[in-house]
Predict the 3D structure of the following.
Amino acid sequence: MTEPAERIVNLALFLAAARVPVSAERIRAEVPGYPKDQDETAFLRMFERDKERLRAAGLVIDSTPEGAYRLDTDRTFAAEVTLSPEAEASLRVASAALLADPAFPFGDDLRYALAKITSASEVPTAATAHLADERPSEQGAAVVSLSEAISARKLVSFDYINAAGQRAVRTAEPFGLFLREGRWYLVGRDTGRDETRVYAVSRMNAVDVDLSRPKTPDFEVPEGFDVSDFIGLPFQYGSKEPFEATLSFGPSVAWRTAALVGNVGVLQREDDRVLWRVSARSVRRLLRWVIANGPGIEIVAPPELAEELHAGLAEVADLHA
């Protein structure tokens, strides 16, 4: 763990173990990680940041009129969760894949969570999953900044290159993040266009959080907002105007239809096949999706899209004949 993360964990453990409220002076003297030669002003700034990080993580820290601090365990900790050996093994395998992925930005948080269910200090990483294929480390660092902006409801600005290759500086009210097939996406209101949009984090550069008023939120999240409403398939993102495509799942793959499409689009059974009407923005990504998940999946409409797919497959066949 990094030093700041270790210090914050030490502070959380110290407050959880304290039977009575403790002063800042005692915390400074007894919690490992606070520099002994640090002046009082610098310590108080660091301590204040650490408390805010713990509160953002869900720990309820109260202060007394005398300036002492205590952890409200009744409001902090949920009921005990007991996992079966099989469930714990599944959780550890999934966690190992995420911890080995440089695009996953919450490695420390995941390690802390795992520490609550197992006495081991590390999970095995025999199975490696590189979920992201483009600038994973930079993507992960950007997600950390965006997560903090979402929590504090602060405006963010970033240099953005859209799917058409056009570059511009965007300012947005960040509402939520989601992960889809190894790529992180931000959902937020574009203040310049006054509309809610989905941004691929991998297309962002120079992410900057507005900290001019650190204690004051810059916006309110719309009532009823649910980030899952914006999760689509890869070909549904881009700068092009949306178009409707119809795909056919033949008898050999019809049983996979629900797993492949999720809750996206409209399904209709027709004899021994399933038709899927879905909105798309990127022709190239849609063609890639069909090829990656076929054979047995065909494009019915628009006809020019089906022709482009057949032409591309024929060219590949000729090259490898």
About this structure: The CA atoms of residues 83 and 89 lie 9 Å apart. The domain at 243-319 is CATH 3.30.70 (Alpha-Beta Plaits). The chain has three domains: 3-76, 136-230, 243-319.
